[in-house]
Amino acid sequence: MKLNKLLSIGVLGASMIAGVANAEVRDIRIGVDVPYEPMEYRTPDGELTGFDIELGNAMCEEIGIQCEWVVQGWDGIIPGLQARKYDAIMSSMTINDQRREQVLFSDPYITPPSAWFAPTDTEIETPSEESLEDKTIGVQRGTLQDNYVTDLYGDVADVNRYATADDMVLDMDSGRLDIVFLDFPIGKSTLLDSEAGDYTTVGEKITEPKEYFGEGFGIAFRQRDEALAKAFNEALATLKENGTYAEIEAKYFSE
Amino acid sequence: MESLMNWLQAQLADNSIFTLQTLSYYGDGLVTTIQLVFLSLIIGLVLAVPLAIGRGSRHAWVRLPIFFYCYVFRGTPLLVQLYLIYYGVVFVEGIQDTWLWVILEKPFVPALVAFTLNTGAYTTEIFRGAIKSTPKGEIEAARAYGMSWSLMLRRIVLPSAFRRALPAYGNEVIFMLHASAIASVVTIMDLTGAARFVYARFYAPFDAFLFVAAIYLCLTFTIIYFFRHLEKRLLAHLKPASG
Fold it and tell me: Which residue of A161, A166, A170 to mutate against B (max B Cβ within 10 Å)?
């Protein structure tokens, strides 16, 4: 009881200090579209969770404000922001120029990584023009991974393009593919988790260059809420420094 | 040659979609499509002639299996057959360790097998109809000459059956060309595969597919022209006498 009181005074104090620092920053509501695993989804008992949710809550705590999550379908998520149904969107939204005309973005808080996956006994250690020569690479047709692989290795390796990730996994199982290049979370759930031990990632997770992998996900605010965006940017920087960010990232994006 | 390349490059200068690179995708796709369709038609044709003869056999143990084969391959979608053959072979235990895997690993041969079996079934039915409709009088005449069964087939029945089957077979060739568009679902970069790639890459469905449609039209035109010519030659005796 006493501890609780102490804590609440502490939070109150912190929020007052924060309030003084950023006069315009108050408790906010954040719009999110669920489910989009592992970024945002509900646990079996209905609670919201995911990378976005945990990172968002951590940022709010850092700033010292209360944040409430509002579930909103993707189609109406930007209009909902303009209509003040909520004050921010944190829902795996890729930063791009079209959206910049409508909303104000925070700094990117993550660029969803892509990764190479291969059978555990693969001889490829790091993907390069030499190691991938005459290998058969699987990608999903029309994805950024397809563009990346086609441009970098299209001349030295065979690129098999699939309509769905399922078809690709089937051909990987049958031994037709030497290696695939996939969104990391998809590869993790289809290859690493469901067929435990048969597959492994090869090399580093890849998020560069930007022309293929985009600018990353950002939190969207209304154009005039510059102070709010600034507060979130500062909070993100702090979380990255003190290790909280790495902790949350590891929870959702490690093998 | 170099001046031609320069000319082509100049033509493509202010075009972001049809670069030399994407055109080379279309070019490779054209080659793949023609290989796939041509080979499957040839093998299918070779397969179909004896099957069509057997299809009309008096012996049930010859007739029924052929009937069953035609029924199955005409009764199911080609896409399903392609999936079954491409993904189905890998469920054969240990196939990866046999010599067969060398040819089944790449998508080309499984697709070729599916297309061949499919066109073989249709062609069998086309020829069977043509053989069946051989005028009774011709057969009786052949018998009266004391021709053996095989000699009669070779000299009387098959030549006239081929002629009657020609228009229907021309259709089958065109159908096969268009059916080959599904090869890209098993990762073959045929013409349609190239179009899908360009579409996905540049988000330009109209440019990508209109271009490929034009190529298919040209191919179809060639086939029609070829069969027209063949019919003119082989069916000259059926034309109304002029003058």
Answer: A161
